[in-house]
Amino acid sequence: MIDISVLPVYLTAVVALLLLPGPDMLLIASSSMSYGRRVGVFASLGNATSGIILTLFAAAGVSALIAMSPIALKVLHLLGGAYLLKMGWDCLRASAAIAPELDGSNKVATTFYQRALVSNLLNPKALVFFVMFLPQFVSSNISATSGEQMLALGLLLNVLGLLFNFVLVALVGILGKPLLEKENFRNYQHKFMGAIFVVLAIWMLSSFAS
Q1: What residue ranges are annotated as transmembrane (predicted)?
Q2: Dihedral sign of CA atoms 107, 108, 113, 116 in order
């Protein structure tokens, strides 16, 4: 359901996009460094899940309707920024010895899966990206409908993105392992993640103001 003639250009564009630093990369890398590769993998899966949902919305035309509404985009900006600020506050005020909602490796992994999922769904730039990027590679030279092509293009993007994030998690996990073994870092790891969430919130809210 993808025109083979546009595939090389599409893959080149996808690779360039994956290498461009953004809030998703920052969240996945920082969670891997702070809590280990398992948490980074779950954050990557949360990001991929949101990407699949946005792909389905784009293929169905729902995201295009939302993207055309300035009010809807502003609401998403505010909700997304507020959500990230809350996550940052929860981490910053957590005890150095134990953070209730992040207690236990399974709980941490599940928490960051949810955070990556929700933060990306509430990011208007991700929504607009799927609306503006995927249609450029829809071809009239094959029998598949535009919706079917956008679905295939979006799924390919998400698979490549997930593989890229797994590699990122592995690399950052190796670099972050020495940090996790240091007691001083473990005492402040929640504060570090809190600061990351605040930075992401400012990132999102600043684009709302512009």
Answers
A1: 6-27, 39-59, 126-144, 150-180, 192-209
A2: positive
Contact status, residue 38 vs residue 174, Cβ threshold 8 Å? no
Q: Would you list the DSSP string of 100-143?
A: GGG-SHHHHHHHHHHHHHHHHHT-HHHHHHHHHHGGGG--SSSS
Q: How confident is the model at residue 103 (pLDDT cuts 50, 70, 90)?
A: very low
Cα gap 197→33, rounded to integer Å: 14
As a whole number of angstroms, the distance between CA 17 and CA 188 comes to: 32
Q: Is there a contact between 39 and 182 (Cβ–Cβ < 8 Å)?
A: no
pLDDT digits (tens, 9 = 90+) for 171-200: 887 776 676 666 666 566 677 777 877 887
State the average pLDDT over residues 32-45: 89
Q: Are the C-beta atoms of residues 163 and 152 closer than 8 Å to each other?
A: no
Among residues 92, 170, 157, the alpha carbon closest in space to that of 126 is found at: 157
Q: What angle do CA 68, 119, 137 make, to 5 degrees?
A: 50
